[in-house]
Every structure is written in C-alpha cells, then in structure tokens.
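User: Assemble these into one structure.

Assistant: Restating your components, then the assembled model:
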Amino acid sequence: MSSDTLRGRILAAGQRITPQRDLIAGVLERAGRPLAAQELCDAVGQEDPGIGRATVFRTLQSLQEAGIVQNVTLLGNQAGYLLCASAGHHHHLVCRHCGAIEDLPEAEVAPFLSGVEAAHGFGVDHATFNIYGACRACAGEEHAGR
Amino acid sequence: MSSDTLRGRILAAGQRITPQRDLIAGVLERAGRPLAAQELCDAVGQEDPGIGRATVFRTLQSLQEAGIVQNVTLLGNQAGYLLCASAGHHHHLVCRHCGAIEDLPEAEVAPFLSGVEAAHGFGVDHATFNIYGACRACAGEEHAGR
DNA sequence: CCACATACTGATACCTAGTCTCAGTTTGGA
DNA sequence: TCCAAACTGAGACTAGGTATCAGTATGTGG
C-alpha cells in the first residue's frame, strides 16, 4: 500500500496528516481515475458522512499544492480530480472507454512546445494538454471487431 | 466588418439569425479575447439589458455547435468564451500579459499527436491544448528590459 | 405578402461547483 | 504535556450553467 508514500508527500509539502486527508487521498487512490467533484463528495460521504464539503474542497486544494492531486478537465468541461503517481508537471492520456489514465511526461511534450515557440515566437510558460481516445487495450478490442 | 461572415456561419449551421445572437457574437468579436461568463453577461447586459442570462448561455451553446465560439479554460480553471476566426478544430496560444490569442492550427499539433499515438499505443480522438505564455510582442518587451 | 410550424426568447426556479467565515477541535513540535 | 498554528464542520453565499414554460420572432411555402 502506498499510503506511507502519500503521507510522506503530504508531509513533504509542509502539511499535516489528518484522518480526512488520508481518507480523501485514499478514495482518489483507489479510484485510479479522475473523479468529478460530486462523485468524490459522494464517495467520501459514504466512507465517513461526517466530512463536510468544505473540507473535501480544501483538502483537494492542499493536495494540489502538494502536487499529489491534479485538476483535469474532463470531456464536457467537467472538472475532475486525479491522484498523480508521478510528481512534477505532466499530462494525461484519458481513455474514453475504460477511463484508464496514462501519464504523458513533460519530457515528451517539451520538443513539441519548443517547436511552437520557434514557429510563433511565443514564450510558453505553462501548458496543459487534455488528450482523449482509446488506450492500447481498448483500441485493440475495437479494431478486432466483435 | 465581418458580421456578414458571422451571420453566414450561423446560417450555415442551420440556425436562425436573431438580434440577440448578433449582439452576443458582436460582443465577442469586438473583445478579440476570451471573455469569462460574467464579463460576457455584463457586456451583453450593457448593450441590451433585456437579454436574459439563459439566452446568453443558450446562444453560446448554439455558437459553439456552429463552430463560431470555443469554450476555453483560462488560467485558474475559469471558463472563457472565445470567438474563433478560423473554422475547424484548432488550439490557442494565450498571452498572459496582453491577453492576445494566437491560433494554433490542428495541422501543427498533428505530428506531435501521431508521435504520442506511436509511443503509447493510444488512439487519440480528441485533444485540447491550453498553452500560456508571452506573445512575440510581450516577450520582446520583457527581454529588452525596460 | 400572409400564414404557420418551428425555433428562439425571457423569467424564473433550480442545480452543481466552489468559496468564505467562524467557532471549535486536532496536530505535532518544544 | 502545552500551545500556537493548522485544520475541521456547518452553513451561508457566489458563480456558472441548465430546465421549464408560456409567449414571441423567424423564415419558408404558398
């Protein structure tokens, strides 16, 4: 279980460990996919109905600052919260079929951004990518016909 | 003035021309940068206080379907509405300093997406990019010192 | 140029996401 | 074990956005 790692990351960000944070991070960890605000609140409420909405959002904010959670934009402009395995800035490939998430490291997008910088004379200082499609498994299934 | 073009695009999408749509599209056109929901509602209300909020949002939706308006995510996860000069799917480079928007055509990102597809075995079917930084003019200013 | 189906509008109520405040509780370092 | 600082829950509040519904405008076909 990686809870120890999670706790370590929270502590490393200079934040306190509380049962609420443990629980919220745990929910996201077990989900393994981005959760919309309501899904998350529901799931948290199911495990401990005593946790208030304000705490959920505050915790999400803290976890984002700690680099543990990323706020991603799901299809249809819905906000989603995702527990990130890798630290540091990175992007995600979201499978529309099974909801799986694959990390796209910053290193892979850097050359592309450099190209854009060169072509447009534009100094990029922040970029987020939302890439949707079919992951390897789901794409295979589709192509295999049925 | 490109209003005729705008109207043409609305008609081409099989939608009716109404004074409200004219006005809302006009506000976005004159802004030349993405407007947050509230800014847009305010600006519309200033030109014609009779236009209801519901109409503004409905119109935005219609215009999005017609490919005239894009919903972009501004920094801080704020939703913004932007009138797009070029039709078809494309992306934007947003200058943090002056708010200017530069189009990034799909053709420029396609090779990058192909690379991602090859590297991850992921079949991309939709991607949105949010790229922030300094446009040519603002970057120059910064570097020139002052 | 008139009639009419259909699309659009404004008002209003409602929903979800997210923030703010405040009094009380927990945490963890000294 | 003490205590400041950080965190919590409740609840009120704001903003963005949607649904409903009765009335109005649009534009097409005659």
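Residues 89-146 of chain B form a domain with the Dna Ligase; domain 1 fold (CATH 3.30.1490.190).
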